[in-house]
Amino acid sequence: MTTSTSSLKGFRFPVLVADIGGTNARFAIVRDAHAQTKAFEPVSTAGFPGFAEAATASVFNHTALMPRTAVIAVAGPVTGETIPLTNADWVIDPKELIAQFGLESVIVLNDFEAQALALPGLEGAAVEQLGGGAPVPFGAKVVLGPGTGLGAAAMIHAANTWIPVPGEGGHMELGPVDAEDMRIWDHLERVGGRVGAEQVLSGSGLVRLSRAVAEAEGQSRRFESGAAVTEAADAGDDVALRTVACFVRALGRVAGDLALAFLARGGVYLGGGIPMRIERHLRAPAFRAAFEAKAPHDALMRTIPTYLVRHPNPALEGLASFARTPALFAVELTGRHWSAQESSAG
Ligand SMILES: Nc1ncnc2c1ncn2[C@@H]1O[C@H](COP(=O)(O)OP(=O)(O)OP(=O)(O)O)[C@@H](O)[C@H]1O
């Protein structure tokens, strides 16, 4: 029943695309290679025991279309015959999904690889430029997304194809830089003996950071969630405002580090659930200042554009682009492609 292939000539439509995050499970159907992506209402990941139940509630209860292929993006590495999610209790079992939904094949990719697949096509109202110059055509692109976790991936152009490069950039080291950071970092909880970027740049990171800011200020202020922090900041709460300011500086620095690592002259894109919720803070000069403060490369950094991703479902759009035009992308499918037949899909 299982066949893993490293290449794919084409997808059998309709294609179900899915983006399973730690908080939200999002689904869409692409009817054929020329059709628009039809997105369904997202459902809460924790509200369902697994993929099949969530897909039924979000998609199959609302359409008679039966997909022949499923392309699923998950937070976490795809390393075995079943795929446990990093930030949720689900285990994706491609063979079971093939049997249960009569699919011909299932492909499972990393969630930020899916976001990377969307980058070449994101334009117009789907993105808002936050500074820097014009993107270099076919320059490397980077996407960084604070949400339940901190995802990151690059998109490289070579040999007439776009190559998504998933990774664990969200776990890079995050150190204090200015005097305000030094005060805060003294109080920041270490996880596994260190402060990785995700421990600050995520929903739970906002809460962790707010605790450190409050302690540094000698206050006993507590917030229950990332949303509570940003809402309090909107209401003018001092601890929450300092927390968001520190979050924005840290996001600028990590985005800048990734831009340097990949020489991302095609732009750095801010995805994930949080940037859209703090958009006015990202438009203030502090974000770009932190992004550009990369001596000896500050002149280079000033040219690199940063973008806020406004598209509501960039990962689904990326998977849909891949399904419509697989030849435009070089996606390694070895060990990530399951087929109902013994032969390879397509
Ligand atoms: N108003 C808000 N301000 C700040 N953070 C928020 C707000 N609302 C939700 N969040 C945080 O956003 C996170 C959800 O992000 P997102 O929408 O990217 O979910 P996801 O796709 O399920 O996550 P991931 O793909 O990172 O696992 C939660 O941790 C939540 O605490």
Automatic annotation (TrEMBL):
Catalytic reaction(s) noted: D-glucose + ATP = D-glucose 6-phosphate + ADP + H(+)
SUPFAM superfamilies documented for this protein: Actin-like ATPase domain (SSF53067)
Record flagged with keyword Cytoplasm: yes
One Pfam match: Glucokinase
Subcellular location: Cytoplasm
GO annotation, biological process: glycolytic process
GO MF terms, alphabetically ordered: ATP binding; D-glucose binding; glucokinase activity
The entry's keywords: ATP-binding, Cytoplasm, Glycolysis, Kinase, Nucleotide-binding, Transferase
Residues reported in the UniProt entry to bind ATP: A18, D19, I20, G21, G22, T23
Catalytic activity, EC: 2.7.1.2
Principal subcellular localization: cytoplasm
GO cellular component, one term: cytosol
Family indicated by similarity: Belongs to the bacterial glucokinase family.
PANTHER family listed in its UniProt record: GLUCOKINASE (PTHR47690:SF1)
Name the UniProt record assigns to this protein: Glucokinase
Species of provenance: Stappia taiwanensis
Record lineage: Bacteria, Pseudomonadati, Pseudomonadota, Alphaproteobacteria, Hyphomicrobiales
Gene: glk
